[in-house]
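Supplementary notes for students who missed Thursday's class. We covered one full example, reproduced here. Read the sequence, then the structure, then the short commentary at the end.
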Amino acid sequence: SFATSHIKAARDPACNHLTPGQRPDAAQVQLEVEFASLDEARGAGFELVDVREAWELTEDPPGMDTGLHLPLSELLSGRIIFPAQGRHLVLCAHGVRSLSLTEHLREHGRTEVYSMRGGIAALLR
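Structure (token representation):
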């Protein structure tokens, strides 16, 4: 007799599972990037957008420039809007909020938005 089994397995993000000519869907597109410094990110052509709340910025080392400050609470409430144009790297404390916002923006057609893996904390280690 014939039997079918289903197993769940994680996809290796490094593998390209596309056939020639096939376009990647949103789940296959790279959302997170890593840099050793914010200057390196800027050098790669990114405009930085920091979505941390104002009180979080007080924890930064003196002189740290995290770019355009757009608190996530203000974005979610609609009081401010994310820039319509440009290649943006979204930053938060640990990379969780920035990834969530990046996913949301990608779902709404923004292809040049990325999240900093590990957030600001990854740079301060």
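Commentary. The longest strand covers residues 47-50. The longest helix spans residues 96-107. If anything here is unclear, bring it to office hours.
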